[in-house]
Structure to design on (963 residues):
């Protein structure tokens, strides 16, 4: 099938990723709704703030334009309970001068004639002199809002004075003005009644009014302009956090790496994220303005719609590119909320500083403004401040699109306009976006790989020729040279032969047409990790994970890489797929080198990878995964549906095609990963433990798929299942400690590295007693088993490895091979005599081969690293033995009875992590005479502390031959 390439492929990948982002948003409805509609809630809160402020300022005209002030006329004396914080029982007013009959009459008239509310006598208290009033007020604080003091000078002159509590107090946001509320009504009442009394006309009246000056609003307040920056920043933070966590999650789950392996272009990746998020941002900004208009804010009604929309849209777009940039530094998606919260707190504080006037003022240098404007929340704060002050009163016209470049009339020292803010927002958007791409390239990915710091200065980066050079370690790594790898020739003859063939072909520049992959001395060394402390750079020592591998993988064949955990299998695959750069050597895949970026981009188009851990989006179904990966791979769009259906059918996932992969079982996920690896008919497939977690039936089914997939392609398989390797592999190599230890077909490995042949002898069931069974055979008893054991011992000198009452298992060494034909012929003749029901003879299992190789490797490295473990002997003492050693002599065990000393055979098994551990040991036996005596030495104190003396390893061949 012809795969797409170049620009059409970028377009196809972009469309597929855009669709993926849309599906993910749709499947995360709650987050998407928050991102789009949270503005409704926050604008409602601003609305509440505005209402509260309006009610607080209802008694003052400072915030209003007053063109035609109204006169305050005929204010009645209010009940004392109206005064804020008054103590009850209280008095509407106190008065002095009660010794005068005229004064008493005047006060009675004041009480009687109070407009709308005659004052009862118990709400007024009389005193003789002002001093008495003062004394009373002092001992009864807050019991009356005011006092009148009358003095009758003569029959035509009555003077008066007023005392009020003039302290302005506020309660629940509203302020009390004692002058207008209490002083003026008392003054009007006193003057009116004194005049009536002196004139003698109780109807004498006049109208008196108090008026403030006409004035423009002395102070301005816009709820949106003041509270808006924080609230709109909070709205933007939803999108910010979701965006960061989506990007980081794709990195963390290696989804991005999986897409890159399939040939994803970075440009398609970034563009698809940007387009989708810009679309959501567009909607969120639109809703913010519409909700604001719905709540009838002057801010939203009087400023031009396009001016407002552009402020919100550009601000949120800025936050988006800022999120892209921040995501390069965060490696865990769970940290997204913490990062978002920190940005919000910082934004809140810097906005506060911005609203105080810093640095958008003549007094500050432009440098401050440039630095300050890089952080998007600050620009938002200034924009809302400008738009708010342009609509602070109902008469302000707001900022129209045409006047966006002008300063609002109130801003006398304005140094920035809305138009300038647009320019800033657009520039900072590009700054953050470019930095996002730059940091994404130079900060190490999950595999510790990054581009060089000045990668963009290399002309080859722009021409596409080898511009994808990558390095390992952080940009601030302290450099330390990596120690060279000692070049030791392989000890195994098959591995040596393979190496010689590959070296020969490499030297001649031959490419065998049957070879799909040629690995030429591949080495991989992981540089140690850095710790920089107190001007000191500490680096853990480098680790040689692959130590020079030379091997060919043939076409149409499955090559199986076996090895204990940490052997270097995944590292080899990672080097071949370009996930991690090789340290030394090279590998050619269908003639393309993994060391060049042009070679790697050709390789990506012809490989399929099933990684060790499922790399899937929980929210996407099996079908959606296949559609996405097929598009990234470049399959023609018309074929994708059919190919996906076929792949799903092959891995038996048709019924679950539309189910989200998050609900798949472990086995279903592995099958989907296999289907993804095989999509697009790749010529080279890497399957890293593809059947992990599958039940036996499904596993067999996947084996069928892999078997069928061999045709026309090369497959590299790593597995811990020896059965799988045995069934599927054409060739097997066992790796340990970064080196190939053996290579060949399964039969060759078994015959070379197995301990020999396995004979299983089964007996007729003895539970039936001694009566002949339906076949006329007599059931076996213990005697028959003993006879057979003796027969094996006499003829072949072997003891059973396993036994129970119905079968015996013997391991027959290779050296007895020539005796076997006659031996088994005789055994078969005597079947009925021994009550034998069945005899099976086979080669040692691959598992045994694997364990032997792993043990040998452990032994080598133990010797190199002096890696000793303690063996507790059944005699009660302990010795230390090198990991993996089979026969170990016990130091100091020589005696007259055992002149050569004693030894044990140690049995090994793999623990859950694949490491070797002791499963038991044989009884202590004499060291055979052919074994060279080894000088025993007295254990040192250190050895005893460490678990006993160190046992000496005895060559297995010497022991087996000596028996
Ligand atoms: N990025 C890394 N940095 C440092 N060491 C690493 C890194 N990746 C792998 N290693 C080390 O390299 C060695 C080989 O690891 P690798 O994953 O290739 O083993 P493997 O044979 O695939 O094992 P398994 O069967 O457990 O998957 C291990 O000791 C591992 O700890």
């Amino acid at each position: 099938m012809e795969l797409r390439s170049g620009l059409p492929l970028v377009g196809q990948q972009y469309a597929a990723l855009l669709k993926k982002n849309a599906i993910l948003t749709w499947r995360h409805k709650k987050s998407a709704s928050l991102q789009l509609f949270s503005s409704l809630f926050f604008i409602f809160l601003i609305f509440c703030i505005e209402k509260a402020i309006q009610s607080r300022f209802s008694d003052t005209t400072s915030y209003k334009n007053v063109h035609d002030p109204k006169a305050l006329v005929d204010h009645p004396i209010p009940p004392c309970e109206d005064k804020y914080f008054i103590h009850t029982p209280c008095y509407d007013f106190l008065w002095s001068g009660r010794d005068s009959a005229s004064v008493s009459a005047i006060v009675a008239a004041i009480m009687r004639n109070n407009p709308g509310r005659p004052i009862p006598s118990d709400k007024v208290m009389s005193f003789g002199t002002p001093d008495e009033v003062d004394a009373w007020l002092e001992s009864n604080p807050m019991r009356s809002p005011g006092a009148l003091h009358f003095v009758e000078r003569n029959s035509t002159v009555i003077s008066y004075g007023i005392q009020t509590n003039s302290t302005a107090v506020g309660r629940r946001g509203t302020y009390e003005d004692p002058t207008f509320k209490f002083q003026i009504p008392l003054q009007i009442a006193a003057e009116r009644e004194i005049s009536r009394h002196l004139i003698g006309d109780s109807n004498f009246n006049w109208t008196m009014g108090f008026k403030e000056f006409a004035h423009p609003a002395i102070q301005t307040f816009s709820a949106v302009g003041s509270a808006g920056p924080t609230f709109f920043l909070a709205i933007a933070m939803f999108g910010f956090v979701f965006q960061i966590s989506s990007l980081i999650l794709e990195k963390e789950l290696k989804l991005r790496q999986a897409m890159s392996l399939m040939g994803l272009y970075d440009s398609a990746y970034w563009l698809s994220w940007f387009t989708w998020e810009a679309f959501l941002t567009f909607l969120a900004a639109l809703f913010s303005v519409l909700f604001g208009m719905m709540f009838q804010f002057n801010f939203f009604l009087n400023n031009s719609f396009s001016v407002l929309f552009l402020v919100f849209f550009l601000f949120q777009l800025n936050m988006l590119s800022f999120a892209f940039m921040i995501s390069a530094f965060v490696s865990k998606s769970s940290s997204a909320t913490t990062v978002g919260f920190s940005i919000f707190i910082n934004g809140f504080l810097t906005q506060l500083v911005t609203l105080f006037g810093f640095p958008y003022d003549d007094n500050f240098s432009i440098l401050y403004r440039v630095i300050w404007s890089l952080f998007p929340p600050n620009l938002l704060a200034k924009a809302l401040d400008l738009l708010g002050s342009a609509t602070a009163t109902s008469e302000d016209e707001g900022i129209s699109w045409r006047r966006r470049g002008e300063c609002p009339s109130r801003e006398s020292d304005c140094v920035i306009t809305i138009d300038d803010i647009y320019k800033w927002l657009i520039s900072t958007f590009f700054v953050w976006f470019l930095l996002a791409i730059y940091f994404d390239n130079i900060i190490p990915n999950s595999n510790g790989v990054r581009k060089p710091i000045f990668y963009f200065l290399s002309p080859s980066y722009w021409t596409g020729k080898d511009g994808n050079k990558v390095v390992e370690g952080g940009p601030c790594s302290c450099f330390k040279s990596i120690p060279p790898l000692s070049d030791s020739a392989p000890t195994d003859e098959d591995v040596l032969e393979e190496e010689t063939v590959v070296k020969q072909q490499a030297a001649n520049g031959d490419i065998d047409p049957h070879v799909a992959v040629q690995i030429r001395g591949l080495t991989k060394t992981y540089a140690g990790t850095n710790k920089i402390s107190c001007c000191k750079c500490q680096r853990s020592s480098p680790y040689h994970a692959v130590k020079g591998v030379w091997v060919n993988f043939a076409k149409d064949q499955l090559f199986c890489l076996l090895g204990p955990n940490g052997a270097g299998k995944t590292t080899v695959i990672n080097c071949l797929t370009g996930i991690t750069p090789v340290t030394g050597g090279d590998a050619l895949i269908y003639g393309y080198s993994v060391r060049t970026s042009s070679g790697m981009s050709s390789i990506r188009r012809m490989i399929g990878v099933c990684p060790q851990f499922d790399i899937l989006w929980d929210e996407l179904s099996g079908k959606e995964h296949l559609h996405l990966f097929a598009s990234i791979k470049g399959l023609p769009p018309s074929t994708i549906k059919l190919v996906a259906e076929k792949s799903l059918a092959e891995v038996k996932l048709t019924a679950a095609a539309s189910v989200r992969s998050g609900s798949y079982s472990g086995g279903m996920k592995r099958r989907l990963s296999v289907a993804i690896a095989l999509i697009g008919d790749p010529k080279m497939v890497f399957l890293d433990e593809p059947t992990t977690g599958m039940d036996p039936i499904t596993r067999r089914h996947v084996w069928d798929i892999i078997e069928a997939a061999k045709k026309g392609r090369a497959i590299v398989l790593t597995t811990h299942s020896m059965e799988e390797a045995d069934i599927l592999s054409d060739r097997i190599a066992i790796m340990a400690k970064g080196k190939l230890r053996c290579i060949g077909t399964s039969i060759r490995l078994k015959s070379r590295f197995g301990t020999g042949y396995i004979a299983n002898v089964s007996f007729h069931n003895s539970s039936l007693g001694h009566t002949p069974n339906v076949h006329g055979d007599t059931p076996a008893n213990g005697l028959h088993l003993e006879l057979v054991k003796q027969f094996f011992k006499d003829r072949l000198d072997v003891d059973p490895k396993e036994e129970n009452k119905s079968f015996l298992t013997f391991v027959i060494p290779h050296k007895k091979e020539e005796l076997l034909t006659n031996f088994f012929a005789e055994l078969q003749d005597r079947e009925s005599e021994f009550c034998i029901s069945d005899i099976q003879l086979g080669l040692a299992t691959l598992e045994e081969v694997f364990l032997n190789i792993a043990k040998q490797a452990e032994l080598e490295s133990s010797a190199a690293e002096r890696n000793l473990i303690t063996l507790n002997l059944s005699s009660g003492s302990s010795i230390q033995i090198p990991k993996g050693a089979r026969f170990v002599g016990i130091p100091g065990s020589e005696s007259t009875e055992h002149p050569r000393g004693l030894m044990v055979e140690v049995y090994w098994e793999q623990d859950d992590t694949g490491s070797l551990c002791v499963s038991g040991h044989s009884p202590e036996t004499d060291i055979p005479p052919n074994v060279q005596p080894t000088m025993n030495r007295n254990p040192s104190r250190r050895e005893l502390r460490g678990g006993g003396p160190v046992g000496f390893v005895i060559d297995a061949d010497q022991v087996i031959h000596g028996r």
